[in-house]
């Protein structure tokens, strides 16, 4: 039997993770809510070590996908620094123009209560956001970007 390089069997790693997981298969984006209470900086470190980063929400599609996760309140990657809100995932080719500006604040937020609220919590009910103190502990919402490779198999050998 002839072997073709494209038909070499590759193990397909479907991820099984103790955390809750939602998948946006169309875009290859995978969201994970890790069930461990962490401060924002601990959450960021955890996401960067195990996934890509804390979640970035670029548009309504991202938001709706995240909302399908049956999840508790969770940290997302938005934080306030030097008078700007910015995403934990740096501005790279991952974003199209304008996508770093997407926001879904809850009514009256961000209010920077006592001038101490510089990190962003996504509420569990409606997916809207609130700025809270970075030292509080919540579950991290991490995300991954995976590329799916299509395996072409020749069914007919001549
Ligand atoms: Ca607030």
TrEMBL record:
InterPro entries: C-type_lectin-like, C-type_lectin-like/link_sf, CTDL_fold. It comes from the Eukaryota. SMART domains: CLECT. SUPFAM superfamilies: C-type lectin-like. It holds the Pfam family Lectin_C. Residues 26-143 form the C-type lectin domain. This is C-type lectin domain-containing protein.
């Amino acid at each position: 039997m002839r072997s073709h390089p494209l038909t070499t069997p590759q193990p397909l790693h479907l991820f099984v993770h103790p955390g809750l997981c939602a998948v946006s298969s169309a875009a290859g984006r995978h969201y994970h809510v890790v069930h461990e209470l962490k401060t924002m900086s601990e959450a960021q470190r955890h996401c960067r070590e195990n996934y890509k980063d804390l979640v970035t929400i670029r548009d309504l599609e991202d938001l709706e996908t995240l909302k399908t996760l049956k999840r508790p309140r969770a940290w997302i990657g938005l934080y306030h620094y030097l008078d700007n809100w910015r995403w934990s995932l740096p501005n790279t080719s991952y974003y199209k123009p304008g996508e770093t500006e997407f926001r879904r604040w809850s009514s009256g937020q961000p209010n920077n209560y006592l001038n101490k609220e510089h990190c962003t919590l996504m509420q569990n009910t409606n997916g809207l956001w609130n700025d809270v103190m970075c030292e509080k502990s919540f579950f991290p919402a991490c995300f991954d970007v995976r590329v799916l490779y299509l395996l072409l198999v020749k069914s007919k050998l001549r």
